[in-house]
Amino acid sequence: MSSSPRRSRRAPSPPDATGSRAGAVAQPPAARLGWMDVDWRSHLRWVTLHGRPVNVLDSGPDDPALPAVVFLHGLSGCWQNWLESIPPLMADHRVIALDLPGFGESPMPADPISVSAYARLVVELLDELGVADATIVGNSMGGFIACEMAIRFPARVNRLVLVAAAGLSLRHMRHERRRGLRARAENLLFFGLGRLAGRTDLVVRSRRLRRSLLLLVVAHPERLPGPLILEQAHGAGKPGFDDALEAMTAYPIRDRLGEIGCPALVVWGEQDRLVPVRDASEFAWLIPGARKILYPDTGHMVMLERPGRFNADVRAFIEE
């Protein structure tokens, strides 16, 4: 293996003279391209955990007193899922994101994938980076892992932000007979396309299939900037999909959420087609003192669909 990741080590390619990449449908607002001004290569490095390299983004400010924020992606995700959210925090926080083993540029782990193993790995990463505790922000599977961290390693999690977190309904999603036909079809389509992406590059190469996959995780794919959509492809076609999905569906966490003692913020899109919006109320009820924010006309990837509001809400929560 080379000493640097194949793709995520590079900075995302800059826009062309029109402000967008070739092939982008429309020019995105300039404010949404701020992440393209960041030299991502200066913040990316390999960290060896359990004998395997993990692709890590670490803004690494010189001041150790600055609070840390860790971003955890979801199934079929990668650190680039947080491109809109990392830059606004980098000036006054130590920001950490990673490709979980089996996703993005990180190879499969030596041990079987599990929610608890992922949680331990993130804690070991904090140890390696010299971070005592952090705000953990997790989307979907990342939210599931964040909950596990808050339960098993409470001293390492000072605040918890759950963005359309998995863990409650997911284990029934593929088998629940009482779900409507459309909901079952959408979930099967997502999981089916995810598996297909793991076996062939057809999903990544096909604009129609990419849009079908995006339609299940964002309410309006056509509103996302073309360059941002292309960066999300780094999460597709990775070998950890099946094992991670099986790990989530087989690991109950509902009865343990009451053990979470840190402040928690639950953020959800009202049009989430992947994880039911009713789960937002469940998380907010089961986690003591948790608060809930629902974003209208928004899907599963709140941080990409409503970056301005999401970033403001997260900052306000962290700074309370």
Taken in chain order, the helices and strands follow as EEEEHEHEHHHHHHEHEHH
Can you tell me the CATH topology? Rossmann fold
What's the number of structural domains?
A: 1
CATH class type: Alpha Beta
Structural class: alpha/beta
The number of helical runs is: 11
What would you give as the CATH superfamily? Alpha/Beta hydrolase fold, catalytic domain
Low-confidence blocks of residues: 1-28, 174-190
The coarse silhouette is globular
Provide an overview of this structure.
The structure is a single chain. This protein starts with 43 loop residues before the first strand and ends with a helix. It is of the alpha/beta class and 320 residues long. It has one domain (33-318): Rossmann fold. Helix 1 packs across helix 2 (141-152). The model is unreliable at 1-28 and 174-190 (pLDDT under 50). The protein contains eleven helices and eight strands.
What's a concise summary of this model?
With 320 residues, this protein is an alpha/beta fold. It has one domain (33-318): Rossmann fold.
